[in-house]
Amino acid sequence: MKKLLEISLGVVTSVGGFLEMGSLSTAAQGGAAFGFKLVWPIVLGTLCIVFLTEMSGRFAAVSKHTIADGIRDRFGIRFFLFPLVATLIVNTLVLSAEIGGVGVALEMATGIQHQWWALPVAVLAWFALWRSTFGLIEKGMSLLGLVTLSFVAAAVALRPDWHQVASGVLPSLPHHDPANYWFTVVSILGASITPSLFLFYSSGAVEDRWDRGYLGANRAIAGLGMAFGGGISLTVLIAAACVFPAHGITRVENYHQLPMMLVTVFGFGGFVLFIASLAFACFGATLEIALEQAYFVAQGFGWNWGENRMPREDPAFTLVYTCALAIGAIPIAVGVDPLKLTVFSMALTAMSLPLTVVPFLSLMNDESYVGDHRNGAFSNAVVIAIVALSFVLAIVTVPLQILGGT
Description:
Elements: H1 2-18, H2 21-34, H3 39-63, H4 67-75, H5 77-110, H6 118-131, H7 134-144, H8 150-157, H9 162-167, H10 178-192, H11 195-207, H12 215-243, H13 260-266, H14 268-301, H15 315-333, H16 338-363, H17 367-370, H18 377-404
Helix pairs in contact: 1-7, 1-12, 2-10, 2-12, 2-16, 3-10, 3-11, 3-12, 4-5, 4-14, 5-14, 5-15, 5-16, 6-14, 6-15, 7-14, 8-12, 8-13, 10-16, 10-18, 11-14, 12-13, 13-14, 14-15, 16-18
């Protein structure tokens, strides 16, 4: 019964952490501009993150290492600096976007511009990290994030043509605006296959003291949790495809347009649900990414780390997430548009994937770390495909941003 409870809580954690500003905005952009034709990158991205998350949990449970300290231990500190720098840059932009997402929700609720909320949100996130344990953050914010299931209800109530939705699972060439089409594909994949999620997942597994007895639970959490989270992201795209074109909107230019997805179905209640969904999901992501920054730096340099420790026991770890939140708040406070920052940061996330996925693949085939639990031929083939896709995305992301970015 205890193990079953851990699995169910893990599923809740995955749902709460999967849908945030990146997935919401990129799915909404895709649905508005191309209808159901961009179902396939959400499905592909979800499959990829299921495999990567399962592997990261398996690696942590068997080796007792996180991915970050495994990369440093296996390849040395000089090599580790490459994924470290890339991760810090990308995570800082994503963290800013998530702080901006909370600020946007508060602006909708109060009328006070989102710029003024950046520093208060960062301070509140810092206080939550300073005072809370890993389990409280993981479970508490994830349970609050279940309000995002309102998108599922909205998608069903809008009665889309499910045959067209199903046809979108197969990739198709765009009939118009190809540069924006492929840039949106890159952004959706970047929002789905985010390194911070599986890096954070391996750190959480070590924090929770997983061992080989958790391998079955890990498969359930990775499979059911990420698939369910991807399903919510899919319903955002469905709602956007049903609502925005009907109102003559083919490109989401302003974050004030986003509540229409729920308002159309639930009226004013939908507005409240959207504010709650955006605020809780983005605040949870803010905590997760700030922690991931601290995890990655501390693990890479061999410092004491752990959200379950008192701050005085790991001062350098605490300093990293404090600085991350302070720096992340600056772009929003000076007026950077959260929606544009989000879309750009998701594309940059896709660009950075090879720097973490390639060494991770090597670790998953190293018997000295995972023994008999190393990757099989099928898992290797999937990850190699992800790596190949990552390199392609890395090559095309910058010109796509210039040609088709918003």
